[in-house]
Write a structure and sequence with these properties.
homodimer, 482 residues, alpha/beta, nine-stranded mixed sheet, three-stranded mixed sheet, 16 strands
Chain lengths: 482, 482
């Protein structure tokens, strides 16, 4: 982290009723739809920026008016059965809560009556700056996002800005917020990013592995009952020629039987970092009694959830570029602007997919039904599986209904992966807990292509093609020229 | 690494015929046995200390007289069939070559006619200083060791002192030495060390994982044909209730079959770091065509090899303390000084063991029979398996022959591990390549207890008992008081 975040801040602001945030009514021009925003600056009790460690990170701790009492009185309004049980976790720390999945999850949990704190170093925004990329959808600052949410709903989200690789910062966040559950999205989450050059490969593994180790130590030290909900990836399993189970497989070998961790075959330094995390977490569950749920998530698509749709300031990011864009989001943008859908290689690569509305459901289900002390539980978090060719066909068909003429072309595969393979991954545990999946064929029209079309004037076609090669990654640090 | 190695050095010495090393004849008082040492300071052609990066590490590059021509002319004198085949690797970089296994291996390979370079940051010596520990056997500086070896045999070993986590340093070492094979012992290798406190846990994973990533990138960038021989550990497998295979297991599941990486269940942050390495290396073999052999080594015992026995200055380290001491070495020291053998818990913990003379054989066999490009080969490197109780019984019996009255006592197990379990691990691949194992019952008398007795006056009994608890590890950095 240090090598990417060399800026530091020694600013200290201590304000009673005056928020650090730009007063909400100054942003009103951005609020064009759906809801009136009520500015309530006087509700902020404490906002401070303080330097945690020189040259490392700084933290913003914005504690809004939501006292624990106020929030917990709202908890029973949550739709989930857990919300009415006082023994279930109520205070959820969302690490990486400014990111694509994290932001949607933070709002969803807040809406369901949980008390939510976001912990984020905002480095995802820095990656865009450094690589010259941008979300298709315009996204607001985390400060404005949280302010807007408060104005719309009356619900507060606490904000801790800093780096979880900085254990001092993380400790203070834990001691201050006292989470009952931690949802950990706070990792570098792009496979292509991890394959740009040596320094990004090293950064990805160091940032992800050490950050997660720190979270485990923070739970052990400060909140031993806290339930860790960790985002893994279906990519940890690779593409074995046998069915993929949920985390474990029972093997009979030479007449003896054991249930063991499912073998991992990750195919980028990013995916590998998640494999490392899984092993580390499993060990701490056994050795320390940590309670953990590993959500091996498939490829997420879509941008709108019930909460992010409430106001443009709450709008989620939508990545379509060759580094951070997931396959389906990219295809929708390509379809919207008349760019051929770029299928890598033969297109037989098959993966699990899910709507971001299901991501937020799954995380809430995991929190509401926590793992037992010492349990390392693995859920495969996706709803449908498709090959890339099938995705392209679905986008083509949906595009036709909207009057789009969608073409597809194969481009050389920048990755090293099987392009034709068996793939059958189990994903029943979250359904058993109550997941009601959204189906891609519906979402394509109501939550994907229409968004891509709405913002098509913001598309930068230079960002679409793959620029990172699995085989050509070198040690020289890559820079982006304008 | 940076947090433990904050010293830096800006010294630059450029000497023609004058070595940085203390002239050899000044050390002569230490050379009391076996061989006359011939001092040949004029043979050093180039020795320089140069700062690679501020605040990180510094490198000493000592290129001794051994020209490639000279060394390769000796190669055919090596006993192994490979040595006479010019296509086999001749230049071997031993990372961690100042450590317990690394030093013995470097000398063995040099003796067999390979051109050897040692790459080491000497941090193992710093660990001893910081924790107040010491080897039972007195060990010389790496500079004197190499000098002595040169004097005794005429064989040169190049020395690069620096940190492989510093890619600039590692790159220069690769470009300068141009290895055909890299033997990678350069990791923090103690499970208890990794469980002392959070900072050591993080250090262990960061140091080991990033160091290995750097080695992989260096091979890809500078020496793509170079064979990586990486030291793993049998501890990666844990203690499954089925037979342990060598790296892979063929699984038939729901009517389909695949051969997959053997599931890993490591039980310390150290063992986990090796699991992470294994996954990273496997990926680069597939993606980049790296050729790699992972030696999943058992617990090593013994101190003498043919080469280290040649002179006291060459003597290897012998750790018996609760942090770095392996079980059998510790038992021998306990037997020698009349301390009860400390069996952790029930003593049914069963592991693979091997004599250090077999470690050096195995590494040479791996180098002489390299993996193919793109192959990730795993050998289980041990010769016999014992429970801790069986070890204690063997030491007791051998002690009796030497007139020792050896007692055994159970102490609370500081680790989290099964104390009674099934254990049957395959280890045939190295035997198929020609390994001739030493048997513990022989070695106990000729290479273990006698060494412990010889140096028993150096034993610090305070070091023997376990001081690190798997369950009590905390975030506060532990310091050692006198």
């Amino acid at each position: 982290m240090a090598q990417l975040l060399s800026s530091s801040c020694s600013l200290t602001i201590s304000s009673g009723n005056k928020p650090y945030f730009k007063p909400f009514d100054q942003c009103s021009t951005a609020f064009s739809t759906h809801f009136a925003c009520r500015t309530t600056p006087s509700s902020f009790r404490k906002i401070s920026l303080r330097e945690e460690k020189p040259h490392r990170s700084f933290s913003v701790c914005a504690t809004a008016v939501s006292s624990r009492q106020e929030a917990s009185s709202q908890t029973s309004s949550g739709s989930h059965p857990s919300s009415s049980e006082p023994s279930k976790p109520q205070r959820v720390m969302v690490i990486g809560g400014d990111g694509y999945c994290g932001w949607a999850t933070a709002l969803h949990l807040s809406n369901k009556g949980y008390e939510v704190a976001i912990v984020d170093n905002l480095i995802r925004r820095l990656f865009d700056n450094q690589l010259g990329l941008d979300s298709l959808t315009p996204i607001s600052s985390i400060h404005n996002r949280i302010s807007c949410w408060k104005s719309l709903t009356g619900k507060s989200i606490e904000l801790y800005i800093g780096d979880i690789c900085d254990f001092g910062f993380l400790s203070e966040s834990f001691k201050s917020f006292e989470p009952d559950a931690v949802v950990h999205f706070g990792e570098q989450r792009s496979a292509p990013y991890s394959m740009i050059d040596r320094s990004r490969a090293v950064f990805t593994q160091q940032n992800n592995v050490i950050g997660t180790l720190n979270v485990l130590f923070a739970i052990k030290e400060f909140r031993e009952e806290c339930h860790l909900v960790k985002l893994g990836t279906m990519g940890e399993y690779g593409t074995p020629n046998i069915d993929i189970e949920e985390g474990y497989i029972t093997i009979t070998h030479n007449g003896r039987t054991d249930t063991l961790p499912y073998p991992k075959q990750a195919s980028s330094f990013y995916h590998l970092s998640k494999v490392h995390d899984s092993h580390n977490i499993a060990f701490t569950c056994k050795a320390w009694g940590i309670r953990a749920t590993d959500l091996n998530q498939g490829v997420v698509y879509g941008v709108m959830t019930d909460e992010t749709a409430m106001h443009e300031v709450l709008c989620n990011r939508f990545d379509y570029d060759g580094v951070f864009g997931t396959a389906l989001n990219r295809f929708c943008v390509q379809g919207a602007v008349g760019h051929p859908l770029t299928v890598y290689g033969k297109g037989g690569q098959t993966r699990g997919y899910l709507d971001i509305r299901d991501t937020v459901q799954c995380v809430e289900l995991a929190i509401a039904n926590p793992a037992k002390p010492g349990e390392f539980r693995v859920f495969n978090q996706f709803t449908e599986q498709f090959s890339v060719n099938e995705l392209a066909a679905l986008v083509t068909k949906a595009g036709e209904k909207l009057g789009l003429n969608v073409q597809t072309k194969s481009v050389p595969n920048p990755r090293v992966e099987a392009e034709e393979h068996y793939y059958n991954a189990k994903h029943t545990k979250l359904v058993e807990l109550g997941l009601k999946p959204h189906i891609l064929s519906d979402s394509l029209l109501d939550s994907l292509l229409n968004i891509a079309i709405k913002y098509k004037d913001r598309v930068d076609t230079k960002q679409i093609m793959p620029t990172v090669s699995w085989r050509k990654i070198g040690v020289k640090t890559k820079t982006v020229t304008a």
